[in-house]
Amino acid sequence: MRYELDIYGVLVPALLLWLIVAYALSAVVSRIMQRFGFYRLVWHRALFNFALYVCLLGVVVYLSEFLP
User: Fold this and answer.
1) In whole angstroms, what is the distance from residue 57 CA to residue 54 CA?
2) What 3-state class would DSSP assign to 58?
3) Keywords for this entry (predicted)?
4) Which helix H or strand E contains 7, and what residues bound it?
5) Hey, what's the torsion of the CAs at 58, 19, 45, 52, to 10 degrees?
6) What is the pTM (predicted TM-score) of this model?
7) Alpha-carbon gap, residue 13 to 45, rounded angstroms
8) Which residues pair with 5 in a beta bridge?
9) CA trace torsion 26, 11, 3, 56 (10° rounding)
10) Residue pair 13/4 in contact by the 8 Å Cβ criterion
11) Among 7, 21, 24, 42, which residue's beta carbon has the most beta carbons within 10 A?
């Protein structure tokens, strides 16, 4: 994993970019689950959304290892 990325001369922590990507993915997945009525089965929606975000962040960080 790269620890910092150079974006036009500005060093940005890689984790910040992965956090933003995971947030966008969790928003999309959340809307899909809401459309299909999945949240009726969830006991605590905010806790479930946070857990989903953490899982997606783990997947994004893991997949970033394979980027050139």
Assistant:
1) 5
2) helix
3) Cell membrane, Membrane, Transmembrane, Transmembrane helix
4) strand 4-7
5) -20
6) 0.83
7) 30
8) 12
9) 0
10) yes
11) 21
Rounded Cα distance between 21 and 37, Å, is 24
Hey, which residues does 12 pair with through a beta bridge? Answer: 5
Residues in the chain, how many?
68
DSSP three-state, residue 32: helix
- Residues 8-58 have pLDDT tens digits of 888 888 889 899 999 999 999 999 999 999 999 999 999 999 999 999 999
Cα 35 from Cα 19, distance rounded (Å): 24
The number of CA neighbours under 13 Å toward the Cβ of 49 is 16
Amino acid at 52: L
Q: Would you state the structure tokens that stand for residue 68, as one six-digit string?
A: 């050139």
